[in-house]
Design brief:
Elements: E1 7-12, H1 16-19, H2 22-33, E2 36-38, E3 47-52, H3 54-63, E4 71-75, E5 85-86, H4 90-98, E6 103-114, E7 117-121, E8 124-129, E9 136-142, E10 145-152, E11 154-158, H5 166-169, E12 181-187, E13 197-200, E14 205-209, E15 216-220, E16 223-228, E17 233-247, H6 253-260
Parallel strand pairs: 1-2, 1-3, 3-4, 4-5, 4-17
Antiparallel strand pairs: 6-7, 6-17, 8-11, 8-15, 9-10, 9-14, 11-12, 12-13, 14-17, 15-16
Length: 262
Amino acid sequence: MGEKIARAAVFAHGQPERIGDAESRVERLAAEAGVQLGTLEDGSPDIVVALGGDGTMLRALRATLGTSTPVFGVNFGRMGFLTSAEGDLLDEALTRVFAGEFRIVGLCTLAASLADGSEAAVNDVVVTSATPGRMVELGWEVGGEELGSQPCDGLICCTPSGSTAYNLSNGGPVMMWGLDAMAITFVAPHSLHARPLVLPRGHDLTVTNRSRAQHVTVLVDGTSVGDLAPGARLTVSLGQQTAGLAVLPEVSFFTRYHAVFP
């Protein structure tokens, strides 16, 4: 149990029809609990209530990076792996949260360094062919140690919170929340020996585009942030920032895992 919430912010799905009357219900519950309700732009709230699915959660977690504000998710989406309660339980869940009945899980992030700067990722950094259907050749090294080249469709580098997304669908390892590690998984590798790899902090990944003419696109949490021409490089490391995931006391990585992947 933590302290009673004094100030909260709402972060809602961009399509109001997806969440129905959820925002008005949050406003009512906040008023009943004596909680001042606003937005992230109003200052530093004690907690952010995200109404939506994993996409909404991801945007909310990114928006709070560099702050001490945790994000509590109520699921109105399809999967909701990072959420803590389903939409029909919003009233019960937020009554408990506003009373301070929650715990915070620290989620590590990634730092993707390109020639023109660095980008923070909560879920994953993906390197993929800029032309769909065209294979690329990626050179990779870990901690400065050359590990060869791999013909493939791309590469995924993910955090534990992102390991159940694109990484999982490509046969990558699932990592528990709280691990300070990142996983590397090739997408459709043209090889019998390419296997996913989990790295601890301090072992940075460097990816080089060794394709003869094909460019590759760099995606951070699903958004394109740059392009690697042949010979260009990208470095991915565990970031210094941490995202705060607020969950009900009885909610764990495994309760959400079994709810989403029965």
